[in-house]
Request: fold
Amino acid sequence: MRFRRRKPDPEMVGHVLPDDLPKKGLYAEPLRVSDIRVEESVEQPAGGFRVTFGVRVRDAEDKRAPNIAVEATIAGPERTGTGTAVTDMLGRAKFRMEGPAGRYELTVVDVAAGGLDWDPAATDLTAAVEVSA
Reply:
């Protein structure tokens, strides 16, 4: 049995569809942080607590944005840390910090590391929680 290659239809090659939003890859720009959630704090066996923040990223068409780098800073009662997480298939990223009881605040610093446009003014980029023993 021999297989023959099909030639592409000349009318379909190079056909451009109009689009009112610029796209780099799969996302309509600008990206935005749609919400930041504070998950339940977990008391650790060795003492202290683990605080978890969830960040959700959406594109300009309100579609989830997977595989996007999100940089955030968490300020806790003892220290401040900056980290990067990558969104999952649903456009969610998690940031965690362990420490004593007190106030923890997450601030999103950057989305997509400058590779895509994002709108920091679209939503609130901070969330805070007070953890008590």
The mean pLDDT is 85.
